[in-house]
Records
---
Amino acid sequence: GENVEQHPSTLSVQEGDSAVIKCTYSDSASNYFPWYKQELGKGPQLIIDIRSNVGEKKDQRIAVTLNKTAKHFSLHITETQPEDSAVYFCAASSINFGNEKLTFGTGTRLTIIP
Amino acid sequence: EAEVAQSPRYKITEKSQAVAFWCDPISGHATLYWYRQILGQGPELLVQFQDESVVDDSQLPKDRFSAERLKGVDSTLKIQPAELGDSAMYLCASSLTGNTDTQYFGPGTRLTVL
């Protein structure tokens, strides 16, 4: 099955600086890569996603890049703000028993230092 | 904005007792997922429904866990008997079709087994 690795596990950046989180996946057939933000005591919320026919996608301060050849994708947050502090999860979608299945990374705890 | 509802938010039980969690997906969403999230890890799929049918329960410990979605709308996940290792966050998610479309998560149920 699919295996997703995520790095780093913790990341601290000064407010206003950029943050980058990286993920690798194992199943070359995976074609959908969402990123979720999880705040304390809440369920994960989708912040951005990318499909395999696109190399990069941007939404205001958040961007995601995908390298299908190397099987890795990254989340970039620019001009970080205190409200960006949370745990971020990457995921990759693969076919399992004929159905799409999301496999999540282990998460990155991002702390923005004021 | 429509949301996935879950109850209870918190549950404390003793080992060997039975527990049940309820999920109401976003109206019109055909696909419903139950995930387990152990502290410090990403969500792991337990069971996936397409309407009222189970399409993937390969990771569900069937000796003690059961899930149903009788009318293809809301769903119940049951554990009987609960074990210490079942302490985790149980997340419900739903999506429109289950085919690489966005999964929306509920707030989760935090289970503590004593």
---
Amino acid sequence: KNQVEQSPQSLIILEGKNCTLQCNYTVSPFSNLRWYKQDTGRGPVSLTIMTFSENTKSNGRYTATLDADTKQSSLHITASQLSDSASYICVVSEGNFNKFYFGSGTKLNVKP
Amino acid sequence: KAGVTQTPRYLIKTRGQQVTLSCSPISGHRSVSWYQQTPGQGLQFLFEYFSETQRNKGNFPGRFSGRQFSNSRSEMNVSTLELGDSALYLCASSLVRDSNTGELFFGEGSRLTVL
């Protein structure tokens, strides 16, 4: 069964600290993995897209890693800011039928 | 360049009614997909349209339907509303529906409350 699981469900960190969010998937065949940031009440915004051959990809203070062998990805946020408070959603694309599988998200709260 | 526009942003309906939501994709984008987002289930894929043809459909009952017009604008309809249909309905557009490289651009969503 194709699934995407994210951990932790929620996370509270202090402003300026780093954090890492995890995504494990069983989607096969794998096409690509995406991380989205969703502010409360808004639509998701793309952070990174990684294909099978990419191990790491950065977007400013956001760095995503992908281990296609273990089917794991992580999103590392450096020097967190209050504006990083949001839900972060991992999305895996299945290669045969162009279907997306969504994780349930990690809700990050950055406190001053 | 304008982003994905969804209307209405908020609406309240009662059980048994029907609702139509609209999505205008980014200019030039021909692919439009719809998603339902609830606190309990997260994001779930509803359906996807490309050049007026439905290419993919998620596991939702037949009460959920959609269509795409020749100008790529899309509508989704939910008939005989149930309390469980209360959700944020998101629309996303893509330049080319290519799962290998295509990026999805989401609208702000239409928040439906069913009383």
---
Amino acid sequence: EVQLVESGGGLVQPGGSLSLSCAASGFTFSSYWMSWVRQAPGKGLEWVANINQDGSEKHYVDSVKGRFTVSRDNAKNSLYLQMNSLRAEDTAVYYCARGASVANWGQGTLAIVSS
Amino acid sequence: DVVMTQSPLSLPVTLGQPASISCRSSQSLVSSDGNTYLNWFQQRPGQSPRRLIYKVSNRDSGVPDRFSGSGSGTDFTLKISRVEAEDVGVYYCMQGTHWPGTFGGGTKVEIK
């Protein structure tokens, strides 16, 4: 069974940083693109970033370019999202998802950016 | 970015009756590899999204056959043949053909 478990969310002040992690199991992690998708409270879904199988190709939505960095460690079956220069509008539940077509989702981790 | 427009915003349905959700994209979703990367997701209250349909009409494992997807180019539809109580939630379409992937605004399905 595919399992994705996010961690690292919390409360941070504007301009601060958070580092999110996603532990994957139940599939061959190194064979899949991986994605981060977020959902602001009471709002819809927004694709944030994705990364290819060996980490050589990464894509970001314009609103996070230059501030967020996606990475992975295939030896640890883990996906990461480093979020810097955080803004209030980055407040959201962040989901880790398997594949470019987002086949499976984790339970999400909530990041709150507020003073 | 490709804009995905869903309708209706809200869909009250009687149990056992059919339901249909429309999704339109601002440009064709046919990829250079010939595939159309249009997915449908269900998000039940308090839960993570779950993918129901991928590449327009392919049901994911474990998805009841009362769910079906159809369409081509820029116009797509998700149909529920007979709505059950467990189908309550918000449904999203998503295109993965053009980066960045974009989601529709969601359609809230509720029981009358």
